[in-house]
Amino acid sequence: MSERLYPITIEVNGTQRAGHVTARTSLVDWLREHLHLTGTHIGCEHGICGACSVMLDGEPVRSCLMYAVQANGHRIVTVEGLQRPDGSLSVLQDSFCETHALQCGYCTPGMLIAAQALLNTNPRPTEAEIRDAIGGNLCRCTGYQQIVEAIALAARRTAEGAT
Ligand code: FES
Ligand code: FES
Fold first, then answer.
1. pLDDT at 106
2. pLDDT tens digits, residue range 42-95?
3. Sign, CA torsion 62/63/68/73
4. Which atom of ligand 1 is nearest to 52's Cα?
5. 138: how many CB neighbours lie within 10 A of its CB?
6. Which 3 state secondary structure label does DSSP give 87?
7. Interacting residues of 116 by C-beta distance below 8 A, sequence separation 6+
8. How do the residues of the chain divide into helix, strand and coil, expressed in percent and rounded to 5?
9. 107 lines ligand 1 (CB under 6 A)
10. Atom of ligand 2 nearest to the CA of 101
11. Does residue 42 have its Cβ closer than 6 Å to ligand 1?
């Protein structure tokens, strides 16, 4: 017997996306496999690493821990949604490049989501607030210092008028 499918409509990066999913389809699998938004990474698949982070109604969440049906009617932003409208890097993304805040890049989408969610609500965070905001995201390469510097740089640039 085939599994029952449920209709969903979710705003993803500003566009309404509709589909049919099984009750056990995770949000990250729907984003990656059905919408082909593969910028969101899968690491641990049980809520530890943060690589799968996306914004749900402005709040960072683990998309490996959510079912797609739970996001029905909500607003999702993935790492692809952080770029400027013309496709160029955002201030935050450019700051990650500038400070060498990534090596293998596996954690980077989740770090960018956590950082952007912080900057959206707290545009001038302290170092402690930055470290707290990315505290749920694991990076095995950088030692975190350059990531913290990147987020602080993005905050400074934005305060100086960068968009
Ligand atoms: S893949 Fe979701 S928290 Fe690690
Ligand atoms: S850059 Fe490799 S895990 Fe963070």
1. 98
2. 999 999 999 999 999 999 999 999 999 999 999 999 999 999 999 999 999 999
3. positive
4. 2
5. 17
6. coil
7. 55, 77, 82, 90, 92
8. 35, 15, 45
9. no
10. 1
11. yes
